[in-house]
UniProtKB/TrEMBL annotation:
<dbReference type="GO" id="GO:0016787">
    <property type="term" value="F:hydrolase activity"/>
</dbReference>
<feature type="domain" description="AB hydrolase-1">
    <location>
        <begin position="18"/>
        <end position="285"/>
    </location>
</feature>
<protein>
    <submittedName>
        <fullName>Alpha/beta hydrolase</fullName>
    </submittedName>
</protein>
<dbReference type="InterPro" id="IPR029058">
    <property type="entry name" value="AB_hydrolase_fold"/>
</dbReference>
<keyword id="KW-0378">Hydrolase</keyword>
<dbReference type="InterPro" id="IPR052897">
    <property type="entry name" value="Sec-Metab_Biosynth_Hydrolase"/>
</dbReference>
<dbReference type="Pfam" id="PF12697">
    <property type="entry name" value="Abhydrolase_6"/>
</dbReference>
<dbReference type="InterPro" id="IPR000073">
    <property type="entry name" value="AB_hydrolase_1"/>
</dbReference>
Amino acid sequence: MNATAPDALQLARSRTAFVLVHGAWHSSAQWAATLQALARLGAAGYAVDLPGHGLDGPLPGGYLLPGQPGLLTERSPLASVTMDDCAEAVLQTLRAARRHHRVVLVAHSAGGGPAALAAERAPDLVDALVHLSAFVPAGRPRFLDYIEAPENATSRGHSLSLGDSAALGAVRINPLSPDPAYVEELRLAYYQDTPPGRFARWRAALGTDVPLSVPTTPVTLTPERWGSIPRTFLRCAEDQALTPAVQDLMIAETDRAMPGRRFTVRTLPGGHSPFAARPAELAAALLA
């Protein structure tokens, strides 16, 4: 007897694993609600901690002290982390997930660089790619090339960076800033549609540093490897960190660079972090 359509759908979901790669200052912990939503829908998920991120990630020495001494000048403990290190963390998780019938690699924001490099190096480990308002290095090789593009000029993220990034070896923010204006800018950039009570907890869970290598290291992709993988771009329609205009620029430049296989493009409502604002809707979009 042939399986019914709902049975076939559930079987497909049960054979699918999502590997989730976080963006700057985040960690695997921020994917928890999305992983739970995926599990309720019958799919497995693995969340990656990029090097130096997560509950055990190092922080600047004065960050949690009164007055936060040295926050603007202390060299980052993540300054030596490379793009290769980040890609290897993704590859390790992809290898673990490969026991599933189908693996979908999902990257958010700055996580697009490490995820893309991992897929380029081992396309056999990835059956589909999803960029969730994420950097795509096919058109321009560095995330910085898009961050500083005119199409991203209205991004609220520009005002959050502290100190001299080159001297720090990282792009540093201050989630625990005592300045209400700074905290509000952080909320509007990354969590504009997250309930206020939840935002207070989410910002406290953020790290301070993303290695400078992540936005500045060129990533080279080829049509034969990365370009051979089916891919979807999930646009965030009201994103104030990576603007819709620069998301569209990345999509268009990638499609020109890799004409043999173009992005499937879907648009989600809201801001930069749907895993915080509406994780159940995000899970449903990923399964779609």
